[in-house]
Every structure is written in C-alpha cells, then in structure tokens.
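To: structure subgroup
Subject: Chain for Friday's discussion

All,

I'm putting the inputs and outputs inline so they're searchable in the archive.
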Amino acid sequence: MTDERQIHIPASFIAIYTRASQPRPSASRIWLEQRHDLCEDLAQLLAEQAKSKVWQLGIDMTDALARIEQGLPEIALDLSTLECTWVLTRVKEILEV
C-alpha cells in the first residue's frame, strides 16, 4: 500500500489497539484503516440521525446522545466497548457537543 492511499488514523483510535507495554498497535495498519473507516462512517451516520431525531421527536441533544449510547453496543457490527466509546466521542465532536 502506498502512502497516498493511507488515511489518517487519529491517535485516539490507535490507542484502542495499543497496550501500555507496547509502543505499537497490536493490529496491522490495513486492519486499523478498515476498522477506523467503519467507526468513522458509523459516527457520521449517527450524528446525522441524532440531528434528525432532535428535530422529529422534539427531544434535546442530550436525550438523542443517550439513546445512541444505549443502542450502540446492540448494533450488529461487533464493536468492542472501546470502539463504542470512541464512536460516541466522535459523534459528540461532529455535533460540537
């Protein structure tokens, strides 16, 4: 894989797969890129859904985020607990909450 095709993976995401005793992630760069793409795409989708639900249901953003947090582990994507936390944090960043 050439450098032009590599996406930037945030340090916060790489930290999910890095142990304190090891300076490098336990997964390959290609796998990390694919997993990051999945989590980033999910975060983007959930941010749009949150905005939509706030408008449709007349709830506030805190309620929308709580619903996302509750339902995130149930999504059939085999997300780890740390990935779920990262996705929720990313949704909040996107929404600037």
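Points worth raising on Friday:
The CA atoms of residues 47 and 91 lie 5 Å apart.
The chain has a mean pLDDT of 90.

D.
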